Amino acid sequence: MSDETEVQESTERSREPERLTEIRFDDFPIPTEILAGLKDLGNVYCTPLQAEILPLVLAGRDVVCVARTGSGKTAAFLVSLFAGVLSIPDRRADIPSALIVAPTQDLCLRIYEEAKSLGRYTGLDLAMAVRGQDDQGQGLALHENAALVVGTPGGVIDFYKKGLLKTEGIRFLVIDEAERLFTQRLAGDMRYLLRKIPHSRERVSVLFSGVLSYRVLAVTYDFMNLPDFVTTTPDQVRTNDIDQSLFHVSSEEKPRLLLALLQRESWNRAILFVNSGEEAESLSQKLKDHGLAAEGVIGELPQNKRRNLMARFKGGKLKILVTTDDVARGIHVEDITLVVNYRLPQDGGTYLRRLGRVTVPGRAISFASEGDAFFIEPIEQKLGYKIPVLWPQEDWFKEEPAVQAAPSEENETPAEPERRHPKEKREGIPFLTGKKVVFSSEPGGVFGLAVQPKAGPPSEPGRPQKRKKRHRSRPRKQKPASNAPAETPPPAAEA
What we know:
By secondary structure, the chain is of the alpha/beta class. It has 2 domains: 8-232, Rossmann fold (3-Layer(aba) Sandwich); 236-396, 3-Layer(aba) Sandwich (Rossmann fold). Helix content is 32%, strand content 14%. It is built from 16 helices and 16 strands. The chain has helices spanning 3-15, 32-40, 48-58, 73-86, 105-118, 135-144, 153-161, 178-181, 187-195, 214-223, 254-264, 277-289, 303-315, 325-328, 348-355, 376-383, and strands at 63-66, 98-101, 125-129, 146-151, 172-175, 204-209, 228-231, 242-248, 270-273, 294-297, 320-323, 338-341, 362-368, 389-390, 437-439, 449-451. The strands form 3 sheets. It has a 7-stranded parallel β-sheet. Strands 10-11-9-12-13-8-14 form a 7-stranded parallel β-sheet. Strand 3 (125-129), helix 6 and strand 4 form a beta-alpha-beta unit. Helix 3 runs parallel beside helix 4, helix 4 crosses helix 5 (105-118) and helix 15 (348-355) crosses helix 16 (376-383). The longest helix is centred in the first third of the chain and has 14 residues, at 73-86. Mean pLDDT is 76; it is low at 1-18, 134-141, 402-454 and 481-488.
């Protein structure tokens, strides 16, 4: 390599994010087919995570890694899997050799697309096993020539039970986002799946998790072979390179302040974090009403719509995504220069994972309202310093769209009285519903209330008001006793 080339590569590396190391991918025994795919993607130097994991997995060791978003974990395990599969001397072409399990279809799709790009020169076929896919078509691919399968727990189990996925040839296993896969809802499926693949001594397993919970640790003991632990915690995010600000603002003023900041700040793409899908839809609609290219990404969004939405976001037609932490884990987009914590997370680890979305140098803005201000302390304890507090100026607040003015008295037309359905329920005291109630101190009033009798129709002067006829029931004529005279009245009843 010439000196000129080395200087050029050093200059290019210096322009890359500082999370890259001096270690190159070609420093490891990686097949040239994989290196060519890495080069096409612009991956020459390793991240700290990749530099630590690759030598372990390539040596055939199990690894448990605590990793954050943006640490390069997907490329790390894909390189390891492709290299491992290509090294199998007696590999069968009709059954898969590697399996990747992820918690959501979105994440599986992202891994699948990245695997296709990275492994384009390997000649290895890929397949997805998720619920909702075409069983016949996917089954044919899985059965005939797929070397690597990406799927959700439910999808993999469905394909296995239908005979579309054979698991006896699995030699490499990746479990991504284990803290979500081994929740109470999915733990049963995962343990069932792990019992249907070869024993841990016959395969290489790599597990990634955001946190090492008790459930995750139990899996490492039961289904892995003395793994090495690699920790790249969220603390390693270069928070000093991210401009952070905290605004104390009421819930009512949040939307107005957000609109003002989005106009004042300089940003390319932005992610806004909320706590629910309903809030994501509501906030994104408010932003769209003010002419901003925003969409809410929620878990219930259909797969095709979400795929189209992410394509628009990557292409720059969509500038703002409003989402939750769970959904955001399946979003992998570069050049996000602004993160807004519209709702503060409840712990410091989640806050740091959100910051990991920012392309350095970038901007992170947090809102602390009356409902979540007490989350500031654990966040700052995790950071190790206080987040700078800014106070907005009065002219920052963007006015809400003007409400349509009411018609003037001159042009005002009487509104048609509202018609109520006869069966429509009305609010009020149940047993007084539909009756006119007045305050009363007379006996018979209920809590100071009395039912006012309905007023009859007004009577004309000089004409007596007609009285309503009362229908009196006549007393039943009693029959005389059979052995008494007819004129003798019956004896009086005893008291």
